[in-house]
Design a protein that fits this description.
Elements lengths: L1 H23 L17 H12 L11 H4 L46 H10 L8 H9 L2 H11 L6 H12 L8 H6 L8 H12 L16 E3 L16 H4 L7 E3 L21 H13 L5 H11 L32
Antiparallel strand pairs: 1-2
Helix pairs in contact: 2-7, 4-7, 9-12, 11-12
Length: about 325
C-alpha cells in the first residue's frame, strides 16, 4: 500500500514538473502563441458555417459573408473597399475575419461589442448585403432544411435574428490560425525563424511596434490614433471612434488591426491605401513612430511579419439546404426601389 502511494505521489510530482516545463518553454514576449479553438457546440458551429456561406441572407441572393471575408484569401477580399449590393463600393476596407474573436470590439470603429453583434450589421447595411433582419429571418423560415436545423440547435420552431447571429458568431470563433512559424519559435523552436526574420522581430520590438501590436492576435486589443507623429492624409471619410462616440478626441482612433496572416490580407489600413506590406511598414514607421526605415530594415520587418501566417481554416464546404417553393429567388439585377 505504502509503495503504491509513493508511486502515485512521484507520478503526480512528475506531472507537475512536466506541466511547469511546458509553460516555461513559451518565451516571455509581447506576443503570445495562438491556441486552437475550443468548440462547445458543434451543431451550432455547423449551422453558422452554412449561414456564413449562404447568399440568401442578402437582398440579391448573391452576396454571402464569405464574399467580403473570403476564407480562401486570409478572411478578407483583397480590395480597398468591398463590392456591395448592385455593385456599390463599400464604405471601408474589410478586416479579416480570422482570429476576430480576439478583438476588443468589431469593425474599425468598434461599434459592435462582439461577433454576434457584428454579424447582424452587414445583413441590413444597404451598401453591403442590403436586406433586413426581418426579411432574412422570413427567407430562412421558408427553407425546410434550415427550419429543422434551427429547431435542433435552439429548440424553437421560430427562427430569430438573434439565433442567426449567434450561430454565425459560433462559427467565426473557430476561425483561428495557430501553428505559425513564429508561434513555433515562441514555443522554443529556434530553427523556426531564419536570421533575417529574427532580426526583423527584434527591430519590430525595439522600434516600438509592439506597443500596439501585441498579444496573441498581434493587435486587435486596443484603439490607437492613426497618425501619432505625422498626420495621416487621406480622402476617406471614416473618422474612427469619433463616428461612434461623436467626440472630437476620438478622431482617427481606429481599432489596431491584427497582424496575424498579414501577408494575405492586403491592401492595408482602413482605406486600403497601402497596397503592399513594404508600403505599410514604411508608412507606419513614419506616421506612428517618426522613423524612416532603411530598405534593409523594412525588408527585415516584412520577413518577420510573414512568419505570422498560421494554419488556415480547412474544412469541407457546407452543403446548403435547398430553397422552398416560397423562398425568394436570386435577383441581383433588380432595380432599386
Amino acid at each position: 500500500m505504502k509503495k503504491n502511494i509513493r508511486m502515485t505521489l512521484l507520478a503526480s510530482a512528475a506531472a507537475v514538473v512536466v506541466g511547469c516545463a511546458t509553460v516555461a518553454s513559451v518565451r516571455d514576449e509581447p506576443i503570445q502563441p495562438i491556441q486552437p479553438a475550443k468548440v462547445s457546440n458543434q451543431a451550432m458551429v455547423e449551422l453558422g458555417k452554412q449561414l456564413f456561406f449562404d447568399p440568401r441572407l442578402s437582398r440579391s441572393g448573391g452576396i454571402s459573408c464569405n464574399s467580403c471575408h473570403n476564407l480562401s484569401t486570409g478572411g478578407a477580399d483583397n480590395l480597398a473597399a468591398s463590392i456591395g449590393d448592385r455593385w456599390q463600393k463599400g464604405g471601408i476596407n474589410s478586416p479579416t475575419v480570422l482570429n476576430s474573436s480576439m478583438n476588443i470590439a468589431q469593425f474599425w470603429d468598434g461599434r459592435a461589442k462582439d461577433l454576434k453583434e457584428q454579424a447582424g450589421g452587414p445583413i441590413a447595411n444597404p451598401a453591403e448585403m442590403a436586406s433586413s433582419h426581418t426579411v432574412a429571418v422570413a427567407t430562412l423560415q421558408t427553407i425546410p432544411g434550415y427550419v429543422k436545423e434551427f429547431k435542433s440547435v435552439f429548440g424553437a420552431d421560430a427562427i430569430t435574428i438573434a439565433q442567426i447571429t449567434q450561430a454565425l458568431a459560433a462559427f467565426e470563433e473557430t476561425l483561428v490560425t495557430p501553428n505559425s512559424r513564429f508561434d513555433m519559435w515562441l514555443k522554443g523552436d529556434n530553427s523556426a525563424l531564419n536570421t533575417q526574420e529574427a532580426r526583423g522581430y527584434e527591430l519590430f520590438k525595439t522600434s516600438g511596434c509592439v506597443a500596439c501590436h501585441n498579444g496573441p492576435a498581434v493587435g486587435g486589443n486596443s484603439f490607437q490614433k492613426m497618425g501619432v507623429v505625422q498626420a495621416y492624409k487621406t480622402t476617406h471619410t471614416a473618422q474612427g471612434r469619433m463616428d461612434v462616440t461623436k467626440s472630437n478626441q476620438d478622431r482617427f482612433m481606429f481599432k489596431v488591426p491584427t497582424l496575424r496572416n498579414v501577408e494575405l490580407t492586403y491592401p492595408y489600413f482602413h482605406d486600403g491605401a497601402a497596397k503592399t506590406l513594404p508600403d505599410a511598414v514604411e508608412l507606419m514607421g513614419q506616421l506612428q513612430l517618426g522613423k524612416t526605415f532603411t530598405a534593409q530594415e523594412n525588408a527585415d520587418i516584412v520577413a518577420f511579419l510573414k512568419t505570422l501566417t498560421g494554419d488556415q481554416p480547412s474544412f469541407k464546404l457546407p452543403h446548403l439546404p435547398p430553397s422552398g417553393d416560397k423562398t425568394p429567388r436570386p435577383d441581383p439585377f433588380a432595380k432599386a426601389s
